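Handout, section B. The chain below has 63 residues.
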Amino acid sequence: MAYRIDTGQCSVCGSCEFECPNGAIRMKGESYIINAAKCTECEGHFDAPQCVTVCPTDCVLPA
């Protein structure tokens, strides 16, 4: 299962984009999106999804 970003809560800080080991997060328009095809929930890299860990507004949610 991939993650998604609640754009209504996102502060557009960019923390998640820089922490993603798979390059699954990018800007689209004025908000960030997660490419579900690239998202592995950081499996094989970290114990927890890094986007969730670094998000200051807790807007990264399971899809």
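Note. The helical segments are 15-19, 50-54. Compare this with the example in section A.
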